[in-house]
Amino acid sequence: MLRLHCASGDDDLGFHTTPVNFDFKWHFCDNFWGNTLFFCHLWWGSKNISFDVFKSSMDYDCGPDCYWEVKSDGIYFSVNPTEYLEKKYSW
């Protein structure tokens, strides 16, 4: 089971424990100043990692959606879940 906690400076999405193949989704709008930041902390067995899942100034454009996928060797990102997932972080 994967445990996660995601939040921004304004919104705490709480702690969640997810089964395999579970999608955790939320929607938000970038703030007026263009400095929105969401981060997540993930725990999977003895592994854990914290990282920014959305930052207005990120070097890649999420467009309308950002897709993150957790795998046994790390955390992957794509702007389209049916396309290539790029490994962004190792555990």
The helix-strand sequence is: EEEEEEE
Number of helices: 0
Cα end-to-end separation: 15 Å
Number of strands: 7
**Whole-number average pLDDT?**
84
Question: What structural class do you assign from the helix and strand content?
Answer: mainly beta
Task: Kindly report the spatial arrangement of strands forming the biggest sheet.
Answer: 2-1-3-4
User: What's the gyration radius in Å?
Assistant: 13 Å
- Name the helicity range: under 10%
Task: Indicate the proportion of strand residues.
Answer: over 45%
Sheet with most strands? 4 strands, antiparallel
Shape: globular
Subcellular location: Secreted
Family: Belongs to the plant self-incompatibility (S1) protein family.
Keywords: Secreted, Self-incompatibility, Signal
Organism: Penstemon davidsonii
